[in-house]
Amino acid sequence: MLSMFLGFYASAVTFAAQSYPQLEPALIDLIHQRIISNLALTVAVALPFISGLFYMLGRRYSAMTRGGGG
């Protein structure tokens, strides 16, 4: 997953540099750093909730398939 993210980041920087030659490389890097920090914050907040959801769904599924009959 990390390698996919790094590959995407490298291609995004290359694409931005080729598509917008009037932008400075420092500005492109600043924009991408802000995007990455927002992405990291989103992952840090969303990952526990998503993990908890899958945990609860897994427990419910295992309880239903045990044959509790109800």
What does this structure look like?
With 70 residues, this protein is mostly helical. The chain has one domain. The chain has helices at 2-19, 25-65. Helix 1 runs antiparallel to helix 2 (25-65). The longest helix has 41 residues, at 25-65. The protein is elongated and about 65 Å long. The two termini are 40 Å apart.
Number of strands: 0
Order of helices and strands: HH
What structural class results from the helix and strand content?
mainly alpha
Helix content: over 70%
- Domain count, please report it: 1
- What gap, in angstroms, lies between the N and C termini? 40 Å
Radius of gyration: 21 Å
Please state roughly what percent of the residues sit in beta strands, choosing from under 5%, 5-15%, 15-25%, 25-35%, 35-45% or over 45%. Answer: under 5%
Large-scale geometry: elongated
How many distinct helices? 2
Regions with pLDDT < 50 over 5+ consecutive residues? none
**Mean pLDDT figure:** 79
What's the main sheet like? none
Quick overview:
This protein has 70 residues and is mostly helical. It has helices at residues 2-19, 25-65.
Topology:
Layout: H1 2-19, H2 25-65
Features:
2 helices, about 70 residues, about 0% strand
